[in-house]
Amino acid sequence: MTVSNSQLQPSAANDGIQADGAAAKAMSAEVSGRPFVFFTNASSGNQDTEQFLEKIATVMEGHEHHIICVYPDDSHEQKQQEAVSLVKKHNAILVVAGGDGTISAMANHAIAEQFPMGIIPFGTFNMFARDHGLSLDTDTALRDLLTGHIQPVQTGEIGGVHFIVNATLGLYSQLLADREQWKNQFGRRRGIAIFAALSTIMKYGRSYILQFNKGEGRQLVKTVSFMACNNTLQAQQAGVQYDQTMGDGYLYGIVLKPSSRKRMLLLALKLIFRRLDQDRQIISFPFEALDIDKKKGGRSIEVAMDGEVHSLQAPFTVKANRDLLKIVVPASVAQHSEQE
């Protein structure tokens, strides 16, 4: 489904182009006057799709905007390309309405094509939006687009694929896959997710011997799971201690050492109650870039980036990118960032 509302006069569109030029010279820039291309997944979150489309029409009245709505039978890839084409055609700002997975997928397009992106959080956890001070209220988030500023935010990258919240390999990747199977069968409830996690831990027996190349030093680590974290809220919720370097050109690495199933179940409980920092099986450290090689078994490693699983060939590099992705933030958030 594609909806267009092109009521913007040519002079206003030119103002949008000038605003974009100013963005290249400053950390943030007003977005007033630029068209919006909304990309929304009808199956994401708890929002009623038709109600959301009505809210867009109300808030964006008189402002040029276009809507790409993805329904269950649609091709996601085709709709994503359709949205990208509209953004490029109208020199617009892409506005993604969805959860972290949808935002991450479209962020890769935004980085590749170098256009800014707005966010309307529709997900269950909305870690990316919350970490960057974006409103979780739909009406407020829509209004913030009209008065917002464009500023760069940090992303992570592995093998040319960018992630906004985290990238994981090993046990955590398997947890994600099993959780989706359980939820598809029994429903999307927190209790189901917990039981799925416990079931995965009880049957999981794989470990990796990884080589971390950090600067001039090399370290062999045996692990059942590794996470590269790009989200302070997620680190806080997991109970892992971190320093202020994360998000300032640094990612945070979290390594889980192998242990008995009894110990793994204890770790699962600590994760639920956010006490991982109290366990000796956890190693955590900040890094700018990290080369990872697999020293035992085949070269293929499944890596989950923001919930999407990719099969990568080792060795590969995990790194932070400070300013490749540019998003629209509320004016108050932009002012706070400039003061810091």
UniProtKB/TrEMBL annotation:
Single GO MF annotation: kinase activity
Keyword terms: Kinase, Transferase
Pfam families linked to this entry: DAGK_cat (PF00781)
Residues in DAGKc domain copies: 31-162
Name of the protein: Diacylglycerol kinase catalytic domain-containing protein
SMART domains referenced in this protein's UniProt entry, alphabetically: DAGKc
SUPFAM superfamilies: NAD kinase/diacylglycerol kinase-like (SSF111331)
Organism encoding this protein: Advenella mimigardefordensis (strain DSM 17166 / LMG 22922 / DPN7)
